[in-house]
Amino acid sequence: MKAIYKLIAGVIFVTSLGFIIQSCTQSTAKNDKSITKSKGLTNSMKSIVTTANVTSSSVIQEIKLTGTVEALPNKQIRIPAIVSGRVTSVNVSLGDQVRKGQILARIYSSDMAAVKQEWIEAKANVDREVKEFDVAQSLFDAGLSSALELQQAKSELEAANAQLNRINQTMKLMGESDNATHIVRAPMGGTITERNITANMMLREDFEDALFTIVDLSDVWLKINVFESDIRKVKLGANVKAEALAHPGDLFEGQINKMGKLLDPETKVLDARVEIKNTEMKLLPNMAMNVTVFEELDQVALKVPSNAVVFHNNKEFIVKKNGDNFSMVNVKVMGNASNDKVYIEGDLEENDTVVSEKTLLVFNELVEAKKINQ
């Protein structure tokens, strides 16, 4: 009987052992199948991969500086006080756009009234001398007067005309007037950037400030503050991009066309200037700007899209594509290039193909596949 029990127990043991071995075999087969599927990228991942070619070019270094907007010296006019008197009206305010010939202000002036009265008297004197000369000419032609009398009448007429011309020149210098009111007009179109008079204000003869300053802001200076450590990098003709703090996202471009020769004794900076188009009138004098100056170095480097670079474990990688194969390549980013690209160093060559979009997803799948295959 004991022998029968031993036989049954042996059968059960062998059967159980068979099930265990079969289970382990199936599990191993499943794991082997998973490893095979994890090699490389899945078809779904391959379908969303976007690639770009590695290119090369001279290295352009970006220098970050600051600057301010200034009006061009040859595009601004200060309108002085030509006459003294009382300001009867002011028609513009700071920041207003004006056109050439527009009336800015009116000033009642006793000086203008006096000159106007002188002109009236001088004009009457000329009219009188013209008549007297005509009479003298008629008498001379009739033989009733001498040549000396005719010459005297002519001299008096010339003197009267000279006096009238002198007063006309004075009135021209004093500007347009309406009787005793001096009219101030804009000599050019532009923006009012300075106004030093108000209605009913009395202007004395010793008033030295400009009544108005008009600036044409269609083109402006960008004055860049170049620190001593950057002077050797910033050169004439260098390309510049600038962004106003008041208009984030709006880029203004130009080239450095003037370099200063002296450091500011207080700030220790050198001025570099860029003439910038300001067609939308967004830039105003004294606005602060963030400036990027581009310096071309005597060095050639590889470039890839910035989205092609992945940061992993304090290292930088790109995913290289070679046919249907994908591999992770350790690189070193040297700096930013234009058009959202970066300069790199690594085991790559020009025209190699790299993943340029969704790179992190591709990289993570390759990392997981590598872990499973190990």
UniProtKB/TrEMBL annotation:
Residues 79-216 form the CzcB-like barrel-sandwich hybrid domain. GO terms for cellular component: cell envelope; membrane. Pfam families: Beta-barrel_RND_2, BSH_CzcB. PROSITE patterns: PROKAR_LIPOPROTEIN. Keywords: Transport. GO terms for biological process: copper ion export; plasma membrane copper ion transport. Residues 220-293 form the CusB-like beta-barrel domain. PANTHER family: CATION EFFLUX SYSTEM PROTEIN CUSB, SLR6042 PROTEIN. Belongs to the membrane fusion protein (MFP) (TC 8.A.1) family. This is Efflux RND transporter periplasmic adaptor subunit.
